[in-house]
């Protein structure tokens, strides 16, 4: 996870603001957990939350991140707005996923006919 996060941080520092969402957006729903800081060992975040913070925050710990123009920032905020709900739905689906792997589980299906 740390190598990936180094890559995300590199992109955040070096990529043109207009291309940040194209480069990082796909990782916002990544649910792999890790500890971003050895100073706070009990704090775990997901890769998605880490990437979201890189896109939204102006600082990375004590280092200022490159400024994102207001227009680009608003577009990124629009893309990030539904992520909390997506994460909740994903967590709820993972909790019940094993139920449907059991043989004989009753399901409902929709067909085009």
In total, the number of strands is: 4
Percentage of residues in helical conformation: 40-55%
Strand line-up in the sheet with most strands? 1-2
| Largest β sheet strand count, sense and barrel closure | 2 strands, antiparallel
As a percent range, the share of strand residues is 5-15%
Order of helices and strands: HHEEHEEHH
Mean pLDDT comes to 91
Summing up helix and strand content along with how strands pair, one would put the structural category as: mainly alpha
Please tell me what the overall shape is.
extended
Distance between the termini: 45 Å
Parts with pLDDT < 50 across at least 5 consecutive residues:
none
Radius of gyration, CA atoms, in whole angstroms: 18 Å
- Number of DSSP helical runs: 5
Describe this entry's structure for a reader.
Helix content is 48%, strand content 7%. The radius of gyration is 18 Å and the shape is extended. The strands form two sheets. The chain has a two-stranded antiparallel ribbon with strand order 1-2. Strands 3-4 form a two-stranded antiparallel ribbon. By secondary structure, the protein is mainly α. β3 and β4 form a beta hairpin. The longest helix is centred in the last third of the chain and has 15 residues, at 83-97. The mean pLDDT is 91. The relative contact order is 0.14. The protein is built from five helices and four strands; from the N terminus they run ααββαββαα.
């Amino acid at each position: 996870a740390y190598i990936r996060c180094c890559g995300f941080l590199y992109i955040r520092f070096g990529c043109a603001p207009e291309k940040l969402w194209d480069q990082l957006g796909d990782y916002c729903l990544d649910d792999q957990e890790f500890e971003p800081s050895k100073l706070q060992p009990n704090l775990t975040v997901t890769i998605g939350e880490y990437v979201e913070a890189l896109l939204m925050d102006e600082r990375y710990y004590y280092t200022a991140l490159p400024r994102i123009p207001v227009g680009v920032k608003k577009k990124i905020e629009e893309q990030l707005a539904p992520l909390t709900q997506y994460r909740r739905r994903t967590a709820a689906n993972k909790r019940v996923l094993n139920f449907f792997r059991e043989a004989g589980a009753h399901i409902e299906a929709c067909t085009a006919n």
